[in-house]
Every structure is written in C-alpha cells, then in structure tokens.
Design brief:
Layout (H helix, E strand, L loop, with lengths): L1 H19 L11 E7 L6 H20 L11 E7 L4 H14 L3 E4 L3 H12 L5 E3 L15 E3 L4 H18 L6 E7 L2 H13 L6 E8 L7 H10 L3 E5 L2 H13 L6 E5 L7 H6 L1 H4 L3 E4 L7 H11 L8 H19 L4 H9 L17 E2 L2 E2 L5 E6 L2 E6 L15
Parallel strand pairs: 1-2, 1-3, 3-4, 4-5, 6-7, 6-8, 8-9, 9-10
Antiparallel strand pairs: 10-13, 11-12, 13-14
C-alpha cells in the first residue's frame, strides 16, 4: 500500500513537473533587452519623446516580423531610461541598464549626455549607439564600444559651408556678413569655433558670435544686437525652444536679414515649428539630419507618426535607423553577446541597408559611420523642402529673402 502511494505520488509529481517545464521544441527564445536612453523630462523633453517614438516603431516592426531570426525569433524588449536632459541623468540610467542586463544602449540625443553615457557604458564593454549627439569628441576618445550612425558637426559644418557658398554664388554673392548665434554648451560652442575658423576662408566676415544659455527665457538682447549689426546672414545653432524664441523675437522686431541659415538647429527642420509659427518659420534654411524622401519606408514611417497626431522630426527616423542597426548587428553576431555585438557593429562595412537616412554604404571607422551626411532644408509654403543635395532635392532654394 505504501509502495502504491509513493508510486502514485511520484507519478503525480512527474505529471506536474511535465506540465510546468517548458517545451524545448518550439520554445520562444528569451527576449533580448535593449536600452533606449532619451531625455523625456527637462529642457530637451520634446527631442527625447520623438527619439523614443522612433525606437518604439523599430522595435515593434522587428517583433511583428518574427523577431531576431538568427536568435531563434527572440523579441526585443525595450529597457527605457530618462536622461532628464543632463549628463548625470544619462550616466545614472546607463548604470540601471547595466544592472538590467541590456545587450546595448541606443540614444542620448544631446552631445553632453552621449559623451557621458557612452563613457559610462565603456566600463562594462556595453555597446553604445549614438542617435544624434554631434560633438566629434564622442568618437575621438578611442572607445571601442561607441558607434555613431549619423554625421558629427565636423562633417555637417563642412557640408553646410559648401552648400552656403554654392547658394550664395548662384544668387550673385548677395551675402557677405554673418552673425553666429549659438547655445553655450558642448554642441553649440564647438560649432561656433568651426564656423569662425571656416567662414572667412570662404569670403564671409563674421561680425559677432553671440552665445546664449539653454534654456533661455528671453532673446530680446540677442535680437537687438543683430539689429544693430545688420548682418546679411544669421547662422543659429540652438535647441528647439531657444531658436523658436529667437526667430519669433526677430519677427516681432521686424529684423529681416537676407537669410537665416541654420546649422544643426533644433527647430528649423521641425514640423512643430512650421505648424505653430508659420510666419517666423517661413524661408528659414537648415543643414541637419533628415530622412531620405526617396525611400518608401520614409513615407510609411511618417504616416505612422502623423496618425498619432505627432510631428515628423528627424529624431524619429534617426532612432528608428539606429535600432535597426543594432538588430542587424545582432543577426550577424548570431548571439546576444556584448563582445560579439561590438565586433559585428565594427564590421558592418556596407551590410546594413535597413535604414531610412540619405546615406551610402554603412562603414565604421573608429566608431564613426563614414557614410553619414546631412541635407539642407528650407521651409517653403508651410512645408519642409530638401534643397541640397541636388540629386534628391524636391525644391529650389529661395535666396536672398526679400520683404
């Protein structure tokens, strides 16, 4: 009797164990945790929200299409961190992501956040893919874990200046004098130094360079100084709120230079600015990140964003593309291993095509994608048009501005 009871109990335990144990055949592969770092509170919250949106769209698309096939169909699980618009917040979130066991981190947006967060990630050999951060210090420190898919401000400034010369020459050289306005952080100050060094070589006189803080509450003094100097061009490098404030102040004070030619500006290639302040935005030019309008996926993604009653900002396609880059590298690595992922990212060499930026074959040298390039846009008739490069421009530039 006792033996029968033991046997029956053993049978019941075995049956329960059989029900509880996962089936090996056809079992779902463990999710791969991917850290997404964006500033969704503080002065940079708009950019952070749209960066997060781009990452979410990419992750949802990957998971809906079968997950990471080389990893047995593993889904990507987002581990989100709010950088709170400052480097310290970014570092704290990287530490949390490390504890969560993420395979990589994507994002950061602002240069100071990317600089600090990627340095923190390097302590754990944690792959870090920069979405926007344009300071070239990010990829000049010899960190093997850090990769930037988009261009830095050295490339952007060179492109912006080449296109400015072409624009000015085509119009008969109406612009000769410039005032540079920039935010006083890592991004804006570095940009201003480059512009001051390069503009005189191209025949432009820099009348003054004006720095402002981020956030800034008032631009009246900046606008008054521009009025006094009467430059042909104003070249601003600022985040969204500060440039909106500057452009509206200039409009209110009826300051009309021959052109506002922005470089990596947070608002000039931003549909929110265009929709909410169409008069201040009209005919503003920018050299910045932008999705490739020739790619069908660009239009598809834009429709998905606007269906949520959101604006089409460059943060979204850049983060969508950066997440796709990590997914592509994971497929080539064949396992969710950080060292293997770093090797796969470094060896991309033209293999990555699942992005929507206007770039050639992806190739990383010291962590910088050599194919990353900006475009020039101009606000025309309530829309943002591409005016350079010519091979996929959808409008002719309006310059000089009159009236």
């Amino acid at each position: 009797m006792s033996g029968m009871m033991i046997g029956r109990r053993g049978l019941m335990l075995a049956s329960a164990a059989g029900l509880a144990a996962p089936r090996v055949a056809g079992a779902q592969a463990p999710a791969v945790k991917l850290g997404i770092l964006q500033p969704v509170t503080g002065a940079l919250s708009q950019d952070g929200e749209y960066g997060r949106l781009g990452a979410e769209l990419a992750i949802n698309e990957i998971n809906a299409s079968g997950g990471l096939r080389a990893l047995g169909g593993a889904r990507i699980e987002m581990v989100f961190g709010d950088a709170r618009s400052n480097p310290e917040g970014g570092v704290a979130e990287v530490e949390k992501m490390q504890a969560e066991g993420v395979v990589a981190v994507v994002g950061g947006f602002a240069s100071p956040i990317c600089l600090a967060a990627s340095q923190a990630a390097s302590r754990y050999d944690l792959p870090y893919v920069v979405d926007v951060g344009v300071s070239d210090q990010i990829v000049s420190r010899g960190l093997t874990n850090t990769f930037r898919f988009g261009p830095g401000f050295g490339v952007v400034t060179q492109t912006a200046l080449d296109n400015l010369v072409a624009l000015n020459d085509a119009a008969g050289k109406p612009a000769r004098t410039v005032v540079i306005v920039h935010e006083d952080g890592l991004f804006g100050s570095g940009m201003a130094r480059l512009l001051n060094a390069e503009l005189p070589k191209r025949g432009f006189e820099v009348l003054e360079t004006i720095a402002h803080p981020t956030p800034a509450r008032d631009m009246n003094n900046v606008a008054l100084r521009i009025r006094a100097l009467r430059p042909d061009l104003v070249i601003p490098s600022s985040y969204y709120a500060e440039f909106v404030l500057l452009s509206r102040t200039m409009q209110q004070q009826r300051i009309r230079p021959k052109g506002i030619y922005c470089v990596l500006n947070g608002a000039a290639s931003n549909f929110r600015f265009v929709r909410e302040f169409p008069d201040a935005a009209n005919l503003v030019m920018d050299c910045n990140h932008w999705a490739d309008p020739r790619k069908p996926k660009t239009a598809e993604l834009r429709r998905a964003v606007e269906a949520q009653n959101r604006f089409w900002l460059y943060n979204t396609p850049l983060n969508y593309s950066a997440v796709m880059l990590v997914a592509d590298a994971l497929e080539r690595a064949g396992r969710p291993d950080r060292a293997a992922l770093v090797q796969a990212l470094a060896a991309t060499d033209g293999r990555f095509e699942r992005h929507i930026m206007p770039y050639g074959a992806t190739r990383f040298v010291n962590g910088q994608n050599q194919a990353g390039q900006p475009v020039n846009t101009q606000v025309q008739g309530g829309d943002i048009k591409v005016i350079f490069p010519r091979d996929f421009a959808d409008a002719q530039p309006v310059f000089p501005v009159t009236g």
